[in-house]
Fold this sequence. Notes:
mainly beta
Amino acid sequence: NSFIGKWKYEATKGIPQGELVFLKNGEVELRSIEDTTRVIAVGAVPWKYVSPKGSDTMVTVTFTLDEDGQDDVLIFQGVLDAAGGPNREMEGAIATGRAEIGARGSGPMKK
């Protein structure tokens, strides 16, 4: 899958930034930007994606983030270009309750 791995995570509300990690087993982790060994949120359910159709290269990705100590789960739905190369970006919106939060991810990050 074109999004498995580490991504830089930025959002305008909620958890402002971190290292977003998509694992092959369906898990999602958001790690602290200051200390990437510290997990600050995890997926409430496995991530999902919809493969591109025909010649389209856009992949739809959905995942959740459950931050410790928070009542609401953040639900992200966005798209990325599977053929976009190492500088591709995943953009979408995060919903929590009735609010919608703009978010962007870029990556995958390499260490």
